Amino acid sequence: MTGLDLDACIEQLYQKRLLAESLLKEICEKTKELLLKESNVVHIKAPVTVIGDIHGQFYDLLEIFKIGGYCPHTNYLFLGDYVDRGLSSVETISLLTCLKLRYPDRVQLVRGNHESRAVTQTYGFYTECIRKYGSASVWTYFTNMFDFLTLSVVIDDSIFCVHGGLSPSIKFIDQIKVLDRFREIPHEGPMADLVWSDPDPDKEEFAMSARGAGYTFGSQVVKKFLHINGMSHILRAHQLCMEGYQVLYDDQLSTVWSAPNYCYRCGNLASVLEVGEQGQRFFNVFDAAPESDRLPPPGSQLGNNKDIVQVQYFL
After folding, report:
1. Which end of the chain offers a freer environment for a tag, N or C, measured as fewer CB atoms within 10 Å?
2. Residue-wise over 266-296: b if at least 16 C-beta within 10 A, else e?
């Protein structure tokens, strides 16, 4: 990392200050080099703290680190949807990318459906980059880097972690390993299903999704997938949970949601999921960061975004 002081970058972001465009360009290029070496299925060991959707709620991300511990003292697995919706997507993805580069074995970043050129042009990240940097260059650096993010993580060979859910095209986890992930998320197919699909407690099999992408899947799908792959649990994000999390199918699947008071108006709680060395799971539930923590320092560019993105629950 010659010439790139990641500790200084991380400290600047913790102080709620944007990084220079030239720095972000270098950071994204180096992150692509790092992610290129990762499989589509990354295997890690517990203990690890798992984080669901953040959606540009930077102050709540800082609250997560206060609750769960700062890197590298805590291992983190982030399940995607780092950008869009919230007012500080740039700061959020900048910090997470720097932490991944600085502590590559202690920070895992999974791709969500919002880590996409098409989606970020509609739901806030593209507009925010232009507002804060005067051009779309930073958006281009990050969206090119998104193409390199892994699709899934397996904890202790027993917990399958993904942003969205399962696919009718994927029976074996090994099938994920051969997907070409280094591209924009397609409109359909197994890669799209992994980031777009949702469990449906009223179903047993696969069904069409109201999102217009991916599928809904039921209890029998989960049971078969876990049995075939020798797993005990599926862990995912992607769906707003008013209580911060949801557990389905006789404790075979969990949803973790980490954006409290989503879009600054939903009033929901959030959680992080702490997975212990013996496989035990504990949802640490929290509320939105205090208003006093949301004030940017004098002269900071943070918080200049005055537009609140309209809530659309299907994304």
Report:
1. N
2. eebbbbbbbbeeeeebebbebebbeeeebeb
Report field, pTM of the whole predicted structure over 0.70: yes
User: Which tens digit of pLDDT belongs to each residue from 261-294?
Assistant: 999 999 999 999 999 999 999 999 999 877 766 6
Determine the residue type at 287: D
In the residue annotation, 114 being an active-site residue is answered as: yes
| Order of strands, sheet of 245-248, starting from the edge strand that comes earlier in the sequence | 41-44, 152-155, 159-162, 233-236, 253-256, 245-248
CB 99 within 8 A of CB 108: no
DSSP 248-270: ETTTTEEEEB--TTGGGTS---E
Choosing from 43, 55, 73, 114, the catalytic residue is 114
d(Cα 86, Cα 73) in Å, to the nearest integer? 27
- Give phi and psi for 162, each to the nearest 5: -155, 160
**Partners of 274 in beta bridges:** 49, 282
Question: Per CATH, the architecture of 22-288 is what?
Answer: 4-Layer Sandwich (3.60)
Q: Are strands 48-51 and 270-275 parallel, antiparallel or unpaired?
A: antiparallel
